[in-house]
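Help needed: design a sequence for this.
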C-alpha cells in the first residue's frame, strides 16, 4: 500500500519512521523547509535508552501530491486540522482512506464532511515522544500503540488491508470494529488528566497531594464519565481501572502533552479536548462545572498568547 503521513512531528514522525524501517512505501507531507532538511539529513529517532537511529525518508510538499495513495495518516495538533485537511486533500482519491490520530472526537465531523464516511477511519494513538530542537523525535517513555477502525460499513479500503499496512512495524497495531468506543475511552482519560493538570498547573501527583486535590481530580473524571455515558459510550472497565489508577496517583509526575505545551508557552488543544466535551455535555443536559472552568482557563491562556 502507498502511505502518506501528514507531518513529521513527534507522532507522525515516530510512527512514519517505524513504517519506513519496516519496509513500507511511505511519503511524508511537510512544508518546503522541513522537506529540505529531511532530504539532507533524514529523520532521527532517539529511543529512551539514548540510542539514535537515522532513517532516510521521502518528503513531499503539497504541490507534489497525487491521488493514488491508499492510506493517509493524519496526526497533527487539532488547531492545525483545517490547514492540514486542505494540504492533504489532493492525495485523497477514489480508493483512499484517511486515518486520523487526533485526540477527542470533533475532527471526525470535519473529515467526514470533507471526504465522506467511507473514506475516513477513526484512530487512537498512544505514544510518549517529543521533538528536539533539531526536529528529531525523542522517546520519553516506552509506549507505542495505534488503534484504528472504519466509521462506515463499506470503507473504500477494508480493515484487513489497513491492518496489514500498519502491523509489525515496531509498535503495537490493533484493528477494531468499535473505534468510536476506543476514541471515547481515550478522550475520557486524556481529557480528565489534561483538564486537571492544566487547571492546577501541576502534574497529577502534586495535585492529589494538595488539600482537596484528590477530590478535585475524581470530580473531573466523574464529569467525563457522565458525558461519555450520556453520549452512548460508557467507558470500558479496562479504561476505568487504568484511568482511575493514574488520575488518583499521589506520587508520579504524570501529565499530558497539553500540560507540556501550556507550561512551555505553546499553543494548546483546549477547544478540541476540553471545550468540545463541555459542549457535548451541554447538548446532552450534563453539567460539567469543572471542565467548564478548565476550558475557561485554557481559553484565557490562548487569548493571552495573541
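Sure. Designed sequence:
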Amino acid at each position: 500500500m502507498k502511505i502518506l503521513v501528514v507531518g513529521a512531528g513527534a507522532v507522525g514522525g515516530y510512527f512514519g519512521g517505524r513504517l519506513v524501517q519496516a519496509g513500507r512505501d511511505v511519503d511524508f507531507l511537510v512544508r518546503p523547509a522541513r522537506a529540505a532538511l529531511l532530504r539532507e539529513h533524514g529523520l532521527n529517532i532517539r529511543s529512551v535508552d539514548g540510542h539514535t537511529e537515522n532513517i532516510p525518508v521521502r518528503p513531499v510538499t503539497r504541490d507534489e501530491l497525487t491521488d493514488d495513495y491508499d492510506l493517509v495518516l493524519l496526526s497533527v495538533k487539532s488547531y492545525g486540522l483545517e490547514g492540514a485537511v486542505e494540504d492533504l486533500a489532493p492525495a485523497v482519491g477514489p480508493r483512499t482512506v484517511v486515518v486520523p490520530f487526533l485526540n477527542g472526537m470533533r475532527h471526525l465531523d470535519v473529515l467526514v464532511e470533507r471526504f465522506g464516511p467511507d473514506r475516513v477511519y477513526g484512530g487512537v494513538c498512544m505514544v510518549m515522544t517529543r521533538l528536539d530542537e533539531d526536529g528529531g523525535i525523542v522517546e520519553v517513555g516506552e509506549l507505542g500503540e495505534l488503534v484504528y477502525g472504519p466509521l462506515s460499513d463499506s470503507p473504500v479500503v477494508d480493515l484487513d488491508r489497513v491492518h496489514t499496512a500498519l502491523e509489525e512495524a515496531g509498535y503495537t497495531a490493533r484493528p477494531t470494529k468499535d473505534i468510536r468506543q476506543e476514541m471515547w475511552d481515550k478522550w475520557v482519560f486524556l481529557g480528565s488528566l489534561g483538564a486537571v493538570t492544566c487547571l492546577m498547573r501541576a502534574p497529577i501527583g502534586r495535585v492529589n497531594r494538595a488539600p482537596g486535590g484528590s477530590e478535585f481530580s475524581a470530580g473531573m473524571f466523574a464529569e467525563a464519565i457522565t458525558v461519555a455515558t450520556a453520549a452512548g459510550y460508557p467507558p470500558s472497565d479496562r479504561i476505568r481501572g487504568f484511568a482511575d489508577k493514574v488520575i488518583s496517583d499521589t506520587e508520579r509526575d504524570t501529565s499530558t502533552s497539553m500540560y507540556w505545551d501550556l507550561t512551555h508557552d505553546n499553543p494548546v488543544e483546549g477547544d478540541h479536548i476540553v471545550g468540545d466535551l463541555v459542549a457535548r455535555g451541554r447538548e446532552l443536559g450534563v453539567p460539567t462545572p469543572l471542565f467548564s472552568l478548565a476550558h475557561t482557563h485554557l481559553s484565557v491562556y490562548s487569548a493571552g498568547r495573541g
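The longest helix spans residues 179-200.
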